[in-house]
Write a sequence for this structure.
């Protein structure tokens, strides 16, 4: 037995909460931006992913019109800072609805660090920064999809294992439903199976 929920028959907030509870876990884009007046902004956006490989692009969704969206449209630049477990309280606090003239960097006590390819600073305490220029925005209902072209990724050398960041060192945060968050937990590895090797290490049901 299932519970069927039609978005046309329940309220917006109720369905939004339900959707957030099943599209999990969600990585967090901790977006730093600068307003046209020069005020720095820092905000978490949990609708975040890669949108293109070549050229490299990432995207986040602004639910409603937030300062991040206004700033990116005004300046054409932003940085996605990695939301790591040791920064849990700061990431959450940066989601407070401060007025536009207040800088979250100052309000929550994190440090600015100059970026190399954009004028918007990074969060110095964050282990990874993805520097972006605005590629396009797309309005979808009451939300706006923001796609940025990646100009550089800056990674704390302590996070690296050879040529790649090691996820246990990065300690990513993720959003769940309601006021719930998650941390990395168990890490499992499994190789993809080539058709020529089928079934490989996969055991079909009933075998």
């Amino acid at each position: 037995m299932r519970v069927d929920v039609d978005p046309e028959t329940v309220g917006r907030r109720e369905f939004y909460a339900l959707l957030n509870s099943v599209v999990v876990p969600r990585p967090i884009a901790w977006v730093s931006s600068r307003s046209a007046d020069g005020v720095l902004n820092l905000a978490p956006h949990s609708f975040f992913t890669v949108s293109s490989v070549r050229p490299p692009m990432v995207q986040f969704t602004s639910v409603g019109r937030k300062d991040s969206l206004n700033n990116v449209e005004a300046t054409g630049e932003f940085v996605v800072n990695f939301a790591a477990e040791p920064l849990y309280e700061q990431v959450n606090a940066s989601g407070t609805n401060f007025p536009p003239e207040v800088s979250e960097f100052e309000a929550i006590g994190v440090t600015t660090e100059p970026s190399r390819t954009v004028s918007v600073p990074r969060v110095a305490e964050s282990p990874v920064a993805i520097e972006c220029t605005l590629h396009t925005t797309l309005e979808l209902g009451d939300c706006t999809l923001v796609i940025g072209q990646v100009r550089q990724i800056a990674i704390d050398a302590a996070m690296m294992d050879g040529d790649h960041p090691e996820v246990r060192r990065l300690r990513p945060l993720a959003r769940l439903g309601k006021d719930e968050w998650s941390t990395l937990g168990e890490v499992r590895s499994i190789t993809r199976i080539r058709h020529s090797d089928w079934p490989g290490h996969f055991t079909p049901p009933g075998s």
